[in-house]
Design a protein that fits this description.
Elements (H helix, E strand, L loop, with lengths): L1 H17 L4 H24 L2 H32 L3 H5 L2 H8 L2 H5 L27 H16 L1 H26 L8 H12 L12 H31 L34
Helix pairs in contact: 1-2, 1-3, 2-3, 7-10, 8-9, 8-10
């Protein structure tokens, strides 16, 4: 009887923490995001010396309150999930742990609380809250497109790397040390800055030939910016969008399943 009650309690807590489509799950995630936002505000205020001097004690107390809340949440997640190792080493699991460790480390290590800004990464949970299954689906389309076009993008990046090395070496020969191109690595740095159309202006060509080469690199830069966008967009056009939910698989903790799915499409386990 006690085991049955424990299982029911664990199942109820699991639904609240991991399932964003239930009323209680949505309320939990909204409350969690509010706590995350408030804790980030506290961290930012603590970095301002004048504010820290006037209400520093209050900020420390608030920080510990948020840390206790997040610690309790992390413990409950580990307790309720079936595959504990899967969650602990997952993206969310690592972020959840890193969001609470700095406060405890600050007791023995000065400056560790700065790492609390990692909590901002936890805001990715917002995509699971406001019935954002559509965004989950779009994210899957984008990931599929990137995966399908990875070979093309790799070839493109290798071409860019080769181009900046050649351009940097050429400018080193044309301009020389007297014009700021002291060595090939600095010349390659200039080529990267110019090709990406950043243009810091700390190094600039002085000779007519060097300026001509620089103009060509700048024009190529605009084309290079458009190429990877076109590659990914073309791949996305071939991806089929499906209606997916934010339901989390209790076995592998993956989400983004079809609305009528009974089993997980990632591990084959039965969904709740």
């Amino acid at each position: 009887m006690l085991l049955d009650n424990n299982s029911k309690l664990k199942k109820k807590v699991y639904d609240i923490i991991f399932e964003a489509e239930t009323p209680s799950g949505k309320a939990f995630d909204i409350g969690l995001i509010i706590c995350i936002l408030l804790s980030i505000v506290v961290i930012n205020l603590e970095s301002v010396e004048s504010i820290k001097f006037s209400i520093g004690t209050l900020l420390v107390v608030l920080e510990w309150i948020f840390t206790v809340i997040f610690t309790l949440e992390y413990v409950l997640r580990v307790w309720t999930v079936k595959n504990k190792k899967q969650y602990i080493y997952s993206f969310y699991g690592i972020i959840d742990l890193l969001s609470i460790l700095p406060t405890y480390l600050s007791l023995v290590m000065s400056g560790a609380h700065v790492l609390l800004v990692l909590r901002s990464v936890r805001l990715v949970r917002v995509f699971r809250v406001f019935k954002l299954a559509r965004f989950v689906g779009e994210g899957q389309v984008l990931m599929s497109a990137l995966k399908a076009s990875r070979h093309k993008i790799t070839v493109f990046l290798l071409t860019v790397v080769t181009s900046v090395i050649l351009a940097g070496s050429l400018m080193y020969l044309i301009e020389g040390k007297e014009n700021g191109f002291e060595n090939i690595p600095i010349s390659i740095y200039w080529a990267i800055v110019t090709l990406t159309t950043v243009g810091y202006g700390d190094i600039s060509p002085s000779t007519p030939l060097g300026q001509t080469v620089a103009a060509i690199i700048m024009i190529l830069g605009y084309g290079i910016i458009a190429i990877p966008t076109g590659i990914v967009t073309a791949e996305m056009a071939y991806q089929k969008t499906k209606v997916v939910t934010t339901e989390v698989c209790p076995h592998c903790l993956q989400e983004g399943h079809d609305k009528d799915a009974v089993h997980c499409k990632f591990c084959g386990g039965k969904l709740n």
